[in-house]
Write a structure and sequence with these properties.
mainly alpha; DUF998
Length: 236
């Protein structure tokens, strides 16, 4: 009976790992801009501008964002249902990933209608408040996605260290979280500078580092789950 439960625990952890690994891969689809012609400067433009309605490849990047969000959402729901994270930082972490997945999926359905950092006319319309409400909605869902990701990353890394489980995450997670917090501060400062007319502060580079670190953490978490037989609720 114990062995059967142990095998189920391993299977459940590996299923969650698969969701997160695939989600991490989909969330890095924007790196295709290195080999595809987008016409956008990756140093100075938002990542989400790749998926704008005016972009030729916008449909591709909206589809990969939707896929990433749904995969992470599925992984978080599976973890909540099957890995029994009942308490403390683990519960907060799974909830954070749930928010991240849902907000990322919603974000893909609320794309920018144009590219404000690359198109002066779009920037002027944005400054005048004449763009569709989806721009504001997109900003909200993007903020929720990053908030959920940061909460999930920090809380589950803390849980890994506190409970002595998911050793790859316990060992390397704090470094990834620290870097994520640093580039998030950079990105927020760059957005503030852009909105007040003080330059871009390499906003594109900062935001790309931000989303790349989120994907790296998801991959690290997937590896940790795959190497762990027992769920958190049964490990001490």
């Amino acid at each position: 009976m114990y062995l059967s439960g142990r095998l189920r625990s391993r299977r459940d952890a590996r299923i969650a790992a698969a969701f997160f690994a695939l989600g991490a891969a989909a969330y890095t689809a924007w790196v295709l801009e290195a080999v595809l012609t987008t016409g956008l400067d990756p140093i100075r433009t938002y990542v989400s501008e790749l998926a704008a309605e005016t972009e030729n490849l916008g449909g591709l990047f909206r589809a990969t964002d939707l896929t990433a969000g749904l995969l992470v959402l599925a992984g978080a729901l599976w973890g909540l249902a099957r890995l029994r994270p009942h308490r403390g930082p683990a519960a907060a972490g799974w909830a954070g990933l749930l928010l991240f997945g849902a907000a990322t999926a919603a974000d893909s359905r609320l794309p920018l209608t144009c590219t404000p950092t690359a198109d002066p006319e779009c920037a002027a319309l944005e400054a005048a408040g004449l763009l569709p409400g989806t721009h504001t909605a997109h900003a909200v869902t993007s903020s929720l996605a990053v908030t959920g990701a940061v909460v999930g990353m920090a809380a589950l890394t803390l849980a890994a260290r506190r409970h002595g489980i998911w050793w790859p995450l316990a060992r390397f997670g704090p470094w990834v979280v620290a870097l994520e917090l640093a580039v998030t501060v950079w990105t927020l400062a760059a957005i503030a500078a852009l909105e007040t007319g003080h330059g871009t502060w390499l906003i594109g580079l900062g935001q790309r580092a931000q989303v790349l670190l989120i994907a790296a953490w998801l991959a690290l978490f997937a590896l940790s789950l795959a190497r762990t037989a027992a769920p958190l609720g049964r490990s001490r």
